[in-house]
Amino acid sequence: MAGISKVQPSHVYSLRQRVPSDPLVSSQYALSQVNAYGAWTYETGTSSRVTIAIIDSGVDGTQSDLIDKFQYSTSVAFNPNTGAVAVPNNPLHPACYHATHVAGVAAASSDNGSLVAGMSWGAKLVSLKIFLDADCDTNCCSAAGDCSEFGNTCLTNDAGIAAAINYATGVANTAAYGHIVINMSIGGGPVSDCATDSPAVQAAINAANAKNIVVVAAAGNSGGPVENPGFCTNVIPMGATDINNNVAAFSSRGSALASGGLVAPGVALLTTEVGGNTTSATGTSFASPMGAGLAALILSARPTLTPTQVQTYMRAGAEDIGQPSSVQGAGRMNAFRSVRLAVKGTLSDFDGEQKPIAFPNPFRVSQNSLVSFAVPPSIQGAGLKLKIYTVDGAIVRELGTPSWDGKNADGTPVASGAYVFVVSTSKGTSRGRMTVIR
């Protein structure tokens, strides 16, 4: 034909999500809710050395999904009353279950064909233990099994917390540890001013911040004001959401969350258990390591970032779920948006900022266990609903999270073909199309 000198195909390309081989990953709703799969297309935490310091009750170093994550099998124990290093420090031994659950959320070994996936595949762990074995039973109550407010002796205090933070500061940016992210899934009563109420803790946090250490902490489970140390300056406090994308009633809130924090899944998270296997964990204690794992991903991708810049990317990528900032902070964590923003510096070239999109699209079930849906900022709000339809309008599935496993309401895999999806929130409704290939 006249005027045509060359003909060549125009290929279609899609974002390839990274889905790890861990057999229980499909049961980890939190990963799909924050779109960790999309984040892992940019960074799995292996680009540069980052260590997450778990300041807590001591991690079980024999747990099969954690054992390979410890730098030199390090566990350092601190007397909670004096801050002195306790004996023995090794091997890793938990005072109770709590820290092992926390560590699995942040950085369980991922894509290893075993148990669960952590938010950061590549981050190492260090256990900084600030509870005494003699004070705690396995359920993190007193040795006598008393969990009541005044009877429980499984407690720590400012001296132990400050000592653990100072230890992490001392080993930061070394060849062994690399960049450090501190996670503190602990909390005390409401404070009016951390520098006044807990000066040793605030001073230690300030020193860590000056060493470019990102500090993440649980907001607290009282439903009242954010607790210490989450209330302290230079800390990213994390509140908790549930499987329906609502802020949990127990999640602490207030000015500290509004100005510096965000929320993440913290109800019924599947994670690592002491002695092996897995368990379900609930509380802002487990939203916090979601945030710490995201911080580790961002630092792995951009190791020169300051703690303030990491915090900015985490908050800028968060999704509005229709709550006041005092309740949701900057919004619900979206790992994909935050990591993409850190890596590329913008979201303006991403179609999902203007309209809802599915990715990967086409959704090849043999290659990906889930398809995720990006919700544009214009309709981000409370009460998210995702409805999947056939092209002739028959309802296939209704979900409360922005992801789909390719199955109908009865759990039967759908056939290959074109599907319509409708995303709705309190702020509006929009739709798109996608293809399923088996």
Give a written overview of the molecule:
- With 438 residues, the protein is of the alpha/beta class.
- The chain has helices at 29-33, 36-39, 98-107, 158-171, 194-197, 199-210, 255-260, 284-301, 307-316, 325-328, 335-344, and strands at 50-56, 70-77, 124-129, 179-184, 214-218, 236-241, 262-265, 269-272, 278-281, 357-359, 363-364, 371-374, 385-390, 395-399, 403-404, 417-425, 428-437.
- The strands form four sheets. The protein has a seven-stranded parallel beta sheet with strand order 2-3-1-4-5-6-7, with helices on both faces.
- The protein is globular.
Please provide a brief summary of the model.
By secondary structure, the chain is of the alpha/beta class. The protein contains 11 helices and 17 strands. Helix 3 packs parallel to helix 8 (284-301), helix 8 (284-301) packs across helix 9 (307-316) and helix 9 (307-316) crosses helix 11.
Which helices and strands appear, and what pairs or packs with what?
Blueprint: H1 29-33, H2 36-39, E1 50-56, E2 70-77, H3 98-107, E3 124-129, H4 158-171, E4 179-184, H5 194-197, H6 199-210, E5 214-218, E6 236-241, H7 255-260, E7 262-265, E8 269-272, E9 278-281, H8 284-301, H9 307-316, H10 325-328, H11 335-344, E10 357-359, E11 363-364, E12 371-374, E13 385-390, E14 395-399, E15 403-404, E16 417-425, E17 428-437
Parallel strand pairs: 1-3, 1-4, 2-3, 4-5, 5-6, 6-7, 11-17
Antiparallel strand pairs: 8-9, 10-12, 12-15, 13-14, 13-16, 16-17
Helix pairs in contact: 3-8, 4-6, 8-9, 8-11, 9-11
